[in-house]
Amino acid sequence: MPQRPAPLQQPKLLIYYRLRPSPPPTIPKGPHSTVFKTFSPSDLKPYNGENSMPVYLAVRGKVFDVTPGRNFYGPGGPYENFAGRDASRGLACGSFDEDMLTKDLHGPLDDLKGLGQEEMSALADWEARFMEKYLVVGKLVAEGDKQAI
Predict the structure, then answer these.
(1) What phi and psi, each to the nearest 5 degrees, are found at residue 34?
(2) Fewest Cβ atoms nearer than 10 Å: which of 12, 78, 101, 117?
(3) Exposed e or buried b per residue across 126-148, where buried means at least 16 C-beta atoms within 10 angstroms of its C-beta
(4) pTM for the predicted model, two decimal places
(5) Measuring CA to CA, which residue among 33, 13, 53, 50 is closest to residue 137?
């Protein structure tokens, strides 16, 4: 049976436990800092969530850090085709097909020609949703564009 402190020691212990110093509070780590950057399509490609990389995607020239939504946009997610790419046409058309992605990363950016008013409206809704939820970390420019250097 454990020994109990003598009756005179109990008030001292009580005072000690009330007045003892508490450990300093720890400050939670915030999200990693991100510098606004200009991306070409080939610069953006590695940001697909693989190899511990963050997940970025572009919508109408804005590059968003969608890493908090990795379950949706990262490897194995329903929108994984858009990770590291310009997702504008696919989001506008509501399609996850590879055909919606620009094949030639060194060619011009998708000018979204051929999209109707309904698709452009859907794209504007997606862009607004991304602006509310995610950080804009850069802009997308064509390969060789002077802004990409």
Answers:
(1) -130, 135
(2) 117
(3) bbeebeeebbebbbbbeeeeeeb
(4) 0.75
(5) 33
